[in-house]
Amino acid sequence: MDFKVLQSLLKKGMNTKIVLLVMDGLGGLPIVPGGKTELETAIRPNLNALAERSILGLQQPLLPGMTPGSGPAHIGLFGYDPINYAIGRGVLSALGVDFDLQPDDVSARGNFCTVNENDIITDRRAGRIPTEKGAELCNLLSENIKIPGVEVILTPEKEYRFVFVLRGPGLNGDVSDTDPQATGKKALQAQALSSEAKTTAEYIQEFVLQANEVLKDQTPANSLVLRGFSQLPKWPKFNDVFGLNSLAIAMYPMYRGVAKLVGMTVMPAAQSMEEEIDMLEQKWDEHDFFFVHIKKTDSYGEDGNFDAKVGIIEQVDDLLPRILALKPDVLLVTGDHSTPAKMRSHSWHPVPTMLYSELCRPDGISEYGERACLKGSLGPMFPSYELIPLALAHASRIEKFGA
Amino acid sequence: MDFKVLQSLLKKGMNTKIVLLVMDGLGGLPIVPGGKTELETAIRPNLNALAERSILGLQQPLLPGMTPGSGPAHIGLFGYDPINYAIGRGVLSALGVDFDLQPDDVSARGNFCTVNENDIITDRRAGRIPTEKGAELCNLLSENIKIPGVEVILTPEKEYRFVFVLRGPGLNGDVSDTDPQATGKKALQAQALSSEAKTTAEYIQEFVLQANEVLKDQTPANSLVLRGFSQLPKWPKFNDVFGLNSLAIAMYPMYRGVAKLVGMTVMPAAQSMEEEIDMLEQKWDEHDFFFVHIKKTDSYGEDGNFDAKVGIIEQVDDLLPRILALKPDVLLVTGDHSTPAKMRSHSWHPVPTMLYSELCRPDGISEYGERACLKGSLGPMFPSYELIPLALAHASRIEKFGA
What we know:
Oligomer: homodimer
Strand order of the largest sheet of chain A: 9-8-10-1-11-12-2-13
Helix content of chain A: 25-40%
């Protein structure tokens, strides 16, 4: 829905409550032909009972056949078309390490790499150096690099990966990658893609020069490449667009980061799913929209551990009565994307979704699973960003259009 | 479908006949969990028998979660995307009281209201004055207000509501509301939103000044506010766009008004559903598209009277054989939106729809109801404005695209 039309229709002073329960990577695949998915395998009496009182469907995070990363997938669930509201790679990397990005910061995803005597990249991952080595190199660079006028902040990620942040006045992220994303090539020059980014590109080139000098005697990580220079996007805030007072509850930095990016209030990291529900109960009276993120469905999917993913879904089923006891006006249950254990990765498959509300017109389906959702009134491939407007409607928060 | 593409494909000289039967507010909700909707409850042998020879689905009047007023909902059924073809609030109000709007007229929705000694609005509805009082105040204003160069015509609606029409040469509706749509504020100045509307805004401000003078000693309706200044839209006409010679048959002003707005020939108000079908029979040879509007499904839905709404659907079922006896090439049966008795209001829920034609590929569904339509080939959430192109195709009125 167009934000402007929607905003003109939002009812004032409503206190109805919406819960968005996201099991990350929920959608799955059968391991053997004719078999069941992870969700279909799980013993899930509470989810199935809720299905009888809900509308169901399969949502599509992006476009047919497109596999989303965690960032875009959540942006869609938050009601923004993730193709139009794209987050830069650098910003996503910073969110993933819980980095407190400031509005003017320019961030990028960095790789330590190996170059030969002619500066040709021979390994884009520097032999997958240990995580400790990556952290040591970040320290070494931080101590030795000085660029007048700006601060460079390097945060190690796993192995050869790090987050690059440039902080200072008047920066602009419209700069081309130095990472050619191929071996057998030299690193590229960082170039300003608009006149506003000229100084920023010069700072980055200065950083690259100094960094190569610092790293030149290291083995195998004797150079680095950067990609996805970007700044925090200046988007309309979730609370303003949808007239909500939102709270995000999640265990991992990326999800708290994406929630913060759209302006949600974010709880400190929970240590378990149970603690996430504790937080939901404690904060119930203070907010009217709650994003609750369950991570481990995705983690076990990525591990290829079908049974463990099934187990997490069963734990969520056990926790569901605690959420329902709060009497939300609308409860959305979905995933951000599919992560079939069979594929050990994110995938493009549509995501089983249900919307419960006293005001929904139940589909008469008594199961929450991929094949069951296929028969639901939300359809087999609706855009994920339609969920929030639908939830608002079922929470009696949207006025009639026209007379 | 794009009008230009469609128009280029229209067959000439066809005399096939299409009936669009609209039960206003048809879609419903079960009163108790697991129960049936109004339509599902109705004894409807003729509708169910027709379903077996039809294609079915649930249409969405606007966008997911958006509840339409009667105007936009009908514009969609007439084949226009109601978000892009929006009707001004003033025009809708004028249509609702059967006012014969002229192309240059500027109309607005008016409220009598109460203001305190500082001109602050304390009640936007002036204590819901009786309808007779509203009419008396409209007369009083009409007798006392003189604005050289233009005519002001006030038509009372229910209680505190009235329709404001400004008539004269060179008017333009691009003027901002005086209604702040909140209490605790003063009425706003009517401001020209384009240079063409400058004189119109001045006329409106002059009206407001004189009106406040006339009303000042009244209690509680001592002032008024206006909103939704607008003129008849200059849209392509239904008959031109779709190559049809259309006739509208309806009991209530709003529906005859919206039909007139898109250029349909409009029958005088029928007094009963039976008389509507009489009119259809009498005019069968003179037109090839017939919009037949049944009002009371919506009225009883708004009243929260589930059983009476069921009763109207059963009466329509009884009348269906008379329509089928005319042998329409296409019969569309739908609603303009949902009005669940449970909610006593319009709602966003998709609307059960069927398209009968000798040339359709029947879905093999032997029931016309919300849950049955969910399984149909029109899908669970198709845009209402796709119905007319589909009807034209099934009436053999669209040529092949490309060779």
